[in-house]
Fold this sequence. Notes:
499 residues; alpha/beta; six-stranded mixed sheet; elongated; binds the ligand NC(=O)c1ncn([C@@H]2O[C@H](COP(=O)(O)O)[C@@H](O)[C@H]2O)c1NC=O
Amino acid sequence: MKRRALISVFDKSNVEKIAEYLEGRGYEILSTGGTYRKLKECGVNVTEVSEVTGSGEMLGGRVKSLHPVIHGGILANRAKAEDMSTLEEREIAPIDIVIVNLYPFFAGLKEDKTFEEMVELIDIGGPTMLRSAAKNFKDVLVVVDPQDYDNIINEFEEKNEISYEFKKEMARKVFNVTSSYDAAISEYMNEDGEEEYLSVSYKKEENLRYGENSHQDAALYLRNDGKGVMNNIEILGGKKLSYNNIKDLDIAWKVVWEFDEPACCSLKHNTPCGAAIGENSYDAYMKAYNCDPISIFGGIIAFNRKVDKATAEEINKIFVEIVIAPDFEEDALAEFSKKKNLRVLKCQYKPDDKYEYVSVDGAMLRQTRDEKLLEELKYVTENQPSEKELEDMIFGMKICKYVKSNAIVVVKDKMAKGVGAGQVNRIWAACEALDRAGDGAILASDAFFPFSDVVEKAGEYGIKGIIQPGGSIKDKLSIEKCEELGISMVFTGLRHFKH
Ligand SMILES: NC(=O)c1ncn([C@@H]2O[C@H](COP(=O)(O)O)[C@@H](O)[C@H]2O)c1NC=O
């Protein structure tokens, strides 16, 4: 009996090549409408699926291949006599190769199509054929990726048949594609996030050289809808990003977009080591640099405004790994190009992921992003902050959001002069931040004070105002200490732990 290959593809690139090859090997080619026409034009001898099913395509293409004659031909277990006699009884011929790729749902997401258009992009017949063939991979070769056409030809040429391993590998690919395809549909339909199953759809962009350390494997997967910062970064110069680079630039980018004013953030080990707002990018950079001219070395520098030549010249005086900004002046790029390894990233996309995911052993955690800054400002001391001090307080709290807990940020003139991060008790974070800052006017804390010790320490360093969420049963102690030391204290009512 003549062997049969069913070809039904949306992406018709190179389809004639594989069809001609299979025809040359004696396969009968079956195809759905559009694929049939394309192959016919290319001179392939092809039979239309509707001729095989005896039922014309209908409902505008919603039903083309969904028929027992097709799925029986694919799913019959060739080693099972019962299956084969059923085929014979029903006059169904087996289908040995299934080549299908799907309606472009991912591309539709990127093009922001309407809901009705997206629904029409949900392929039904394609995944059904792919899944049937992949389930029966022992007997059927299934191909979902046009990039595999050459591999099939090579496999045939080398072995004169398709090996079990190859067929299994192709089936694995199919379930990977169809599950991601369905996950994207599920994600698209899901508006409130309260799903029973976690369905997210990401595609591997590349293997990274290594993970956090050189003995760890790592890869970058991008959202299939083309959204998100990482999907919208243009690398204008320098080598590829590393795993740590990506994690770091994510935080630096989030910091600068906390601000409407021109802002700059220098960051190391996922922690801002300098951050400032200024008149322009140059001013913000110089202030961020001066927060901590030592730690910035080898760091990441993010801006929320275009970067000019003067700023690039200043940055080039030190070694940094990455500069990321919404845009660059041409002469700034020329300046940066003097540094071979410096990654220059252009990104005009602001952070907008709704959820953050973290894996723990055996589970995934999901939370909404920490998008809020405060509930309500409460002035809890007699002594009130000046307008300028209040601005520094808000500035400090915006930085605190991105510093690992316990987090204390000491601010002066809209510069994060001292950052105390990731300490297991708050007083250590305060000591670190105050010590680093040298001098500062404002102290911001990501969470409340259980004792008055942080206020006391702040007083020693001449701090004028403190902003913190408040809410401790011992708030009174801190407030009293502030009154005693002439420090103003403001509560925000909102904690910003970052673990
Ligand atoms: N409904 C069906 O029976 C059906 N059978 C195949 N398709 C899809 O139709 C596309 C190919 O169609 P055409 O050959 O007409 O261009 C493929 O992407 C394939 O996945 C179908 N379409 C969608 O649901």
